[in-house]
Amino acid sequence: NDKDGLPYSYLATNERTVHEQMGDHLMRDARHFDGNKEKFFERVFKLAERFFKAEPLPLIVIADEKNYALFQKASHHYPVAEHVHGDYCKRSAHDIAQVVWPAVEKHLADDQAKKIAYFAEEIIGKKHHAVGFHDVWKAAQEGRVHELLVEENFSIAGAPDPLDKFKALLLKEPKTAADPDIINDLIEIVLS
């Protein structure tokens, strides 16, 4: 007898019944497996949620459509930055990194474009900004800098004024590699 109590001879003699029975078993197994997958994704998301609450990070999900739908349901549709389509369960970490990195780059580029658009429309448009090193330095010392945009490789030779934190001492001569970079100090003030 099989696990449903049907004699094997019954299954073997009735080919259509065999396929129907196997189909029923497969469907039950698939539903059971999907139910367990959903619980698995719920557990994974609850664990990951601890990190998201401490520091909201972009989430990139690698999954085929069915697993992605199960993850979305289990995570109560937590915002996903990017979805990489496909089944990569049996791929190496290196292979996965090759597939994920373009999604990370896309997300970073999209995020940067949104920040620049926000900066242009909301900050500059409403005159909630500081331009020029001295104005930005003072705003940073006062704790009024929410976003700091610095041109790549931009540097200014100088150091904080030891007598007045709202001032910076800038070198008039061209900057050399040995000179201190006041922009690094500015970044540290904003990040602290």
Please give the radius of gyration in angstroms: 29 Å
Which structural class is indicated by helix and strand composition? Answer: mainly alpha
- How many helices in DSSP terms? 6
Which stretches of 5+ consecutive residues score pLDDT under 50? 1-23
Mass-distribution shape: elongated
Lateral strand order in the biggest sheet: 1-2
What fraction of the residues are assigned to beta strands by DSSP?
Answer: 5-15%
N-C termini distance: 71 Å
- As a percent range, the share of helical residues equals 55-70%
Strand element count: 4
The averaged pLDDT comes out at: 77
* Element order: H for helix, E for strand: HHEHEHHEEH
The largest sheet is: 2 strands, parallel
Strand-helix topology:
Elements: H1 8-13, H2 15-54, E1 60-63, H3 65-74, E2 82-85, H4 93-124, H5 133-141, E3 158-160, E4 168-170, H6 182-191
Parallel strand pairs: 1-2
Antiparallel strand pairs: 3-4
Helix pairs in contact: 2-3
Q: How would you sum up this structure in a few lines?
A:
This protein is mainly alpha-helical and 192 residues long. Helix content is 56%, strand content 7%.
Task: Write up what this structure looks like.
The structure is a single chain. The protein has 192 residues and is mainly α. Helix content is 56%, strand content 7%. It contains 6 helices and 4 strands, in the order ααβαβααββα. The chain has helices at 8-13, 15-54, 65-74, 93-124, 133-141, 182-191, and strands spanning 60-63, 82-85, 158-160, 168-170. The strands form 2 sheets. A two-stranded parallel ribbon has the order 1-2. A hairpin with a 7-residue loop joins strand 3 (158-160) and strand 4 (168-170). Helix 2 (15-54) packs across helix 3 (65-74). The longest helix has 40 residues, at 15-54. It is elongated. Mean pLDDT is 77; it is low at 1-23.
